[in-house]
């Protein structure tokens, strides 16, 4: 297990300005760059192909993921799309049955159009994954921990099983390079939605693909320019600023998560908690081995159903009811009606997404406030029937 390079994150692009000695890196908004002379382009010619501000972020992320290089993309989904460009027509892709909803939508649409063949499998089931790998896939997509049940799969074991012929890709969004570095576990490519922990302030939508080899870096760089999905310079600058504090934010996210877990474990309204750090979590041993920590995402089932969920979320004031994750602010989400609403009820049941399941993205607020908030909400969520006045009252009284 390797340790996150905190200094590289803090110092991304610091003191790189040759002209004026600006301490923080300049923002290059220019769409184009003058040629030195006929037939003499400079390092940069056009901002879709290359941009000095964006390159600082790409280089920093590559270093943090122990990659040879990378591309910073306009969104996490365009990072996913970029990876798919490397595949020949009709290639077979093996993806987790509970992968990120947007990835699921992209892959299943490509499958329906006949562009790719896609098989969604339960990657924690060894015989299922072995059966799929026998069909000689071109790409193995891995996502761990998964959303919203925090299922964990063994990246090293899966990459070994797939072998060198298969392109092995890990979506590392849920942990960030601060807590897991998939290339060191055998992955060829790492994908990020930088929207989440890397930027960490819920004010940029962005993505990145980091590659193990120079050859793969060259391919993704070519494709990113070809399909035009590179990130804007301004978004890149904001994301660099977010990245500098990733490790200190993460420390607070994790400390808060540990205390919130201790509180939830004792609360009578809680039926079940999904968190890889708990001894009874099926992925606990693997998470302990391949992650630096268990992360700041967790989900739990409360006693009751939709009414109790509604009462709980309406009685919280420090957990904003919203999708997304990884920002400094705490969020609460109801996967069945929000992030996973596109899944049919049957598919939700199969994936274990119940009506009483709640997901938290634990922020970096004062933890006593967060616990008091949850306590207030949980103490009221078992009241039936729910009165409107109770729902509206968001004060802690
Ligand atoms: C959010 C997310 C994405 C997509 O990223 P966007 O920035 O929203 O396009 C992909 N994978 C995971 C795991 C995510 O959480």
Automatic annotation (TrEMBL):
The keyword Lyase applies. Pfam families: Cys_Met_Meta_PP. One of its GO terms (molecular function) is homocysteine desulfhydrase activity. The modification N6-(pyridoxal phosphate)lysine is found at residue 196. It is an enzyme of class 4 (lyase). Its EC number is 4.4.1.11. GO terms for cellular component: cytoplasm. InterPro entries: Cys/Met-Metab_PyrdxlP-dep_enz, Cys_met_metab_PP, O_succ_thio_ly, PyrdxlP-dep_Trfase, PyrdxlP-dep_Trfase_major, PyrdxlP-dep_Trfase_small. Coiled coil: none annotated. SUPFAM superfamilies: PLP-dependent transferases. Gene3D superfamilies: Aspartate Aminotransferase, domain 1 (3.90.1150.10), Type I PLP-dependent aspartate aminotransferase-like (Major domain) (3.40.640.10). The keyword Zinc does not apply. One of its GO terms (biological process) is transsulfuration. Keywords: Lyase, Pyridoxal phosphate. It catalyses: L-methionine + H2O = methanethiol + 2-oxobutanoate + NH4(+); L-homocysteine + H2O = 2-oxobutanoate + hydrogen sulfide + NH4(+) + H(+). Its cofactor is pyridoxal 5'-phosphate. Belongs to the trans-sulfuration enzymes family. L-methionine gamma-lyase subfamily. Homotetramer; dimer of active dimers. PANTHER family: CYSTATHIONINE GAMMA-SYNTHASE, TRANS-SULFURATION ENZYME FAMILY MEMBER. This is L-methionine gamma-lyase. It comes from Marinicella litoralis.
């Amino acid at each position: 297990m390797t340790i996150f390079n905190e200094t590289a994150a803090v110092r991304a692009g610091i003191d790189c300005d040759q002209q004026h000695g600006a301490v923080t890196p300049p923002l290059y908004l220019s769409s184009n760059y003058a040629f030195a002379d006929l037939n003499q382009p400079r390092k940069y010619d056009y901002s879709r192909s290359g941009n000095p501000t964006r390159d600082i972020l790409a280089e920093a992320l590559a270093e943090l993921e122990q990659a040879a290089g990378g591309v910073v993309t306009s969104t996490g989904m365009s990072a996913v799309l970029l990876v798919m460009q490397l595949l020949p027509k009709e290639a077979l892709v093996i993806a987790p049955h509970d992968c990120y909803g947007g990835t699921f939508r992209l892959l299943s649409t490509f499958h329906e159009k006949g562009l790719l063949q896609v098989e969604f499998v339960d990657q924690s089931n060894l015989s299922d994954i072995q059966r799929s790998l026998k069909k000689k896939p071109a790409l193995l997509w891995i996502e761990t921990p998964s959303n919203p049940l925090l299922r964990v799969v063994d990246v090293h074991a899966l990459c070994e099983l797939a072998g060198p012929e298969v392109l092995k890709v890990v979506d590392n969004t849920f942990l960030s390079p601060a807590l897991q570095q998939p290339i060191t576990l055998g992955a060829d490519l790492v994908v990020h939605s930088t929207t989440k922990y890397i930027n960490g302030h819920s004010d940029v939508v962005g993505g990145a693909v980091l590659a193990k080899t120079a050859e793969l870096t060259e391919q993704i760089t070519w494709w990113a320019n070809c399909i035009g999905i590179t990130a804007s310079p301004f978004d890149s600058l904001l994301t660099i600023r977010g990245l500098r504090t990733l490790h200190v934010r993460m420390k607070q996210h994790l400390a808060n998560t540990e205390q919130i877990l201790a509180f939830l474990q004792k609360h009578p309204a809680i039926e079940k908690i999904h968190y890889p750090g708990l001894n009874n979590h099926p992925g606990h041993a693997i998470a302990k081995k391949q992650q630096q920590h268990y992360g700041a995402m967790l989900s739990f089932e409360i006693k009751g159903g939709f009414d109790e969920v509604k009462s709980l979320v309406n009685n919280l004031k420090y957990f904003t009811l919203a999708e997304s994750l990884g920002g400094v602010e705490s969020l609460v989400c109801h996967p069945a009606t929000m992030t996973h609403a596109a899944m049919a009820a049957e598919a939700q049941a199969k994936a274990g997404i119940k009506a009483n399941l709640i997901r938290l993205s634990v922020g970096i607020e004062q933890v006593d406030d967060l616990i008091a908030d949850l306590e207030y909400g949980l103490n009221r969520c078992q009241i039936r029937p729910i009165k409107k006045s109770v729902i509206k009252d968001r004060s802690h009284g």
